[in-house]
Amino acid sequence: MEARILISGNTVGVSEGHYGVFAGIAVHPWWFGDVSGGQVIDNVVVSRGDTICGGMHTGINIGQHMWGGGCVQTSPPAAVGNTGTCTAEPPQPLGTLCTPGALCQEWAYVAAGATFTLKDNYVSGAQINYLIEGLDLVGTLVESGNTSGPPQMSDWEAAKLGCYANGTVDYWGAIDRVAHHPTLPGWTDQRVHCER
Questions:
Q1: Residues linked to residue 34 through DSSP beta bridges, in sequence order
Q2: Sequence spans of domains, the chain
Q3: Nearest in space to 48 (alpha carbons), one of 27, 64, 24, 29
């Protein structure tokens, strides 16, 4: 099932003196999987919130792997992912549907011949300004014109205390652009997988 996503022309922010949010804009297709044709364009996301007890963890987030690796105990019928397993480094499912009602590691899916567009956005002040993790990219990511102000630390406990997977511990600081599952040229390859 393809969902047409358009997130455009929004201004999202955390103002000075406020605690903050987890993400300014998030595309987490838990129930429908296929994000082909989706667009996140012309948005402004800025955090000036408290960096000790709040802040903004991610500015724009595509894919749900940072939420417990995208793992669900009972998958809905239209979800895309790897049925029966949840790992720190899962194989790309290539559009395979999860078995309904079963354990599944879900992904956001872009079908062959289709696109997902991330264009002309501005993000500043998040701990990770742009995060792509868990994008089953069989089609094409159209990414251009996205600009950034400096990222800044937030109170993200998993980043500070460490995220444990397969005998390794991941930590991360303030990063402008992160892409893992898939990695992308010019983006930092950092696993961000154990929030919640």
A1: 2, 109
A2: 6-180
A3: 24
